C-alpha cells in the first residue's frame, strides 16, 4: 500500500510516466494503472549476482524469470523446408533448461556460452524436457548488458511478478522511473511515536529499499516496515468499525427467570460442557448491554454450537423479542428446524393443543414452501407468535416482517453475501444483536483480520458422549483391494444396525463443465501440472449410487441426496435417513454442515483429493456423533508422492480442526484478509502474512484500538486518514460497513 503526500501525485496514470503502450500492458496483464499501484508491486524474490536460479524447481505453465549461465548454443536447420531453430541450453550448475528461438539465428551473436543473463518466459514441456520458447532475455555479463550490469551493480536483483508482455527487468525499469520521479510524494501514514517504538524506517525509505536493496538486511528492514503498514491500517479500519458499532443503540436482552430458557435447561438430558457454559456467559453478557452484540462463535465439528445459539435465542424470546437463524441451504434449515423443535418439545408449540403455556413457536421459511405453509410462517413472524424463525435467504425478502427482532444468528457466515446479512439485520426497529457461527476453525490471526470487528468465542471441547473418529486414506488405484475392503466395512456397520454416508464431488445428471470453466471456490487446485487435463471427471452421486446398488452394497437400502432434488424429496430422504429407514446415503457436500444423525458411523468420501482440507474435516464430522466410534475413509486415485495425497494424509493424521485450517490456508494462499469472496476485490496484502505475522497483527490491533479511542475521526493523523481512503475503496468500505 502506498499513499499520497502531495494530493493525487501517486494517482497519476502510468501513461504519463511510461507511455501509452507500456501503460496498457501494465494495466491489461498486471492490473497496475497508477504510479501508486506500481510502487507497491513488490518483487516476488531477489537473486544475487552469481547466485543462479535453481532450475529443477520450475513449475510447468508458470511464467518465470531465471538467472542462469549459457552452456551451449546450437543452430538447427529445419528438414525439408526453410527456416531453423536456435537451441540454447542454460544451467545453474546442476540442472539445465532449454531455450528455443525459431528463425532467429542472428541471436547467436548475443547468446554466447559462458555469459550470464536473465531469461523470462512460460515454462513448457517438449520431449519431457522443460523449455522456454522464444523467451525475453537480458544479458548481464556482456557489452550489450552493461546497462543491466550498472542497474544491478552492488544490489540484489529484484524478480517481479511478471507477465508474458512484461518481463521482470522491464518492470524494474518502470519502477525505477516511478521512484526517481515520485518517491518524494509518498506520505507517512504511521504516527511518529509508533514508528519510534517499533523501530520502523520511514515509508519512502522502505519503498526504495524493497525495490532496490543492497543486502538481505535492507530488504528485511523494508519488509518489516511495509508489513506494519498493512497490519496497522487494516486494524485501524476495523477498530473504527468496532467503535461505531459500540455507539449504536440496541434493546438489552437480559434472561428472565422462570421462563422458556429455564424450562428448556431443566429438560436437557445432559449437562453443558465447561466451554459451552463459558461461551453462553459471554453471549448473555453481550445481550444485556445497550449496544448490539457482534460476536463470532467458532467451534470444532460437533462441539455444540447450535445448542449455545438456541439458548441465546431463548433468552431473547424470554424478553418478548424474536430471534432468527439464517442457514445457507434448505437441507440445513430443515435440519435446524427439526432438531430445535425436537429439543424444545412442547416449548415449541405455544397456542397448540398440548403446548406449553410459557412456550413459543418455531417458524420455518424456505423458498420452496407451499403457499399455505408460507402464509402461516409469515403471519407467525409478523405477529410475534413465532419467537424463533429458521430459514434460508427467503427470510430476507421484503414481505418478511418481525414484531420485535432482537437477535440474528448466521450459520456458516462465509456462505452468505454482505447484502443478505445486512438486509436481515435491517428488519429490526433498532439494530439487533448478531451472532455469527462457523464450524470451520479459524487461526487467531485470521480471526483478528477477517472477523476483526467481531468479538470471538471459541468452543474447542466436545460434549460427553461424542465418540472418536478414525480416518484412513484408501489408495484405490494402487491397491484396489483396499477399496473392496472399504465397502465390506460399510456392510459390517450396517449389519450392526448403523448407517453410512458416501460422498461424491459431483451430482452426475448435469452436463460436463465446459473446458477451462472456473473451479468452484472450495475445490482445491488440481495436482499434476500438465497431466491434470487428462484426469477423468469427478465421480458422481447418481452413477456411484447405481454401481453400489448393483455391486458391493447390493441388498442395502440406498438413497441419493443432492441440491437439485425437489425440496420435498430432499426433506423426505433426510427424514427417512434420520429415522433409520435408509442404510446408505449417497450425497454431495449438501450434508457438509449441520446434519446430525447419531446412528451414522461410517463415511466414504470418493475422490477425496478434490475437496479442500477444511471441507474434508467438516464432512467427517457427520459421523461419530453417537455412542459408537466413527470411521472416515478417504478414497483417492492420486499417487503416494503427490501433494494431493499429502493433504489427505494430513486430514487422516489429526482431528484438530485448527491445525488443519492452517494447512488449508497455507495451501490455498491466504487471499485477501478483507474477504475476497465478500468484497470481490484483489488482495491488499503484499508483505503481511496472516499466518506467520501473529505478533505484528496482535500488536497492531492493540495500537489501532488505542489510537481510535483517543482520536476516532483521525483528526490528528491526516496521512493515516488518506491511507484508509486508499485501502477502503468503495467495495471494501461497503463490506466493512455492512459486516
From TrEMBL:
Residues 507-536 are annotated as: Disordered. It comes from the Bacteria. Residues 482-666 form the Helicase C-terminal domain. GO terms for molecular function: 3'-5' DNA helicase activity; ATP binding; ATP hydrolysis activity; DNA binding. It comes from Kitasatospora cineracea. Belongs to the helicase family. RecG subfamily. This is ATP-dependent DNA helicase RecG. Plays a critical role in recombination and DNA repair. Helps process Holliday junction intermediates to mature products by catalyzing branch migration. Has replication fork regression activity, unwinds stalled or blocked replication forks to make a HJ that can be resolved. Has a DNA unwinding activity characteristic of a DNA helicase with 3'-5' polarity. Its EC number is 5.6.2.4. It holds the Pfam family Helicase_C. One of its GO terms (biological process) is DNA recombination. Keywords: ATP-binding, DNA damage, DNA recombination, DNA repair, DNA-binding, Helicase, Hydrolase, Isomerase, Nucleotide-binding. PANTHER family: ATP-DEPENDENT DNA HELICASE HOMOLOG RECG, CHLOROPLASTIC. Residues 286-459 form the Helicase ATP-binding domain. It catalyses: ATP + H2O = ADP + phosphate + H(+); Couples ATP hydrolysis with the unwinding of duplex DNA by translocating in the 3'-5' direction. It is an enzyme of class 5 (isomerase).
